Amino acid sequence: MLSVYLRGMLISIALVSSIGMQNLFVFNSAMANRLRRAFLIASFVWLTDTALTVVAFLGMGALITHYTWLKLIILFVGGGIVFWMGYGIFKGASATSLEGAVKPLPLKEAFVSAWAVAFANPQAIIDTSVSFGAMRSTLARGEVLPFLLGILSSTFLWFFWRHVDHRRPKNACHGGFSCGSI
User: Is 128 exposed, middle or buried (0-12, 13-18, 19+ CB in 10 A)?
Assistant: First the structure.
């Protein structure tokens, strides 16, 4: 069962480590907030990612694959939301001075944003649901839980490690594993 757990971890880290909306949200949170608040926001992101993963693992991919209209709705509505969020980022970036302090995101907005970067992101929904749904079909009944726990623990480590890694002073890198990582 350990091999199934580790396989879930490795596959999950390959999916979660790509630069996407969730990781950008976590990176920005890590750099703009105190560590305690950044960890709270990371827990929001992990919670939403866990919910998306469980829903995908339980078969949402079969629905998206079977119903083309559902896939189109996810792509268009999610794409519109992604465009709107990107516009907000560019608008905010043009109004921000590099010397000025970054205003922390209120926790309510952070919580809603964490759900949006998971469930309003067509790339995350389709990639996660199709890939995890397909992987689940290859597992024996006794392998499902260890595999899912491997996935969830991998994303937990990823999102929280991102905060520790991005809070470290830039000159503190002495050739360790995370030096220079994104």
Answer: buried
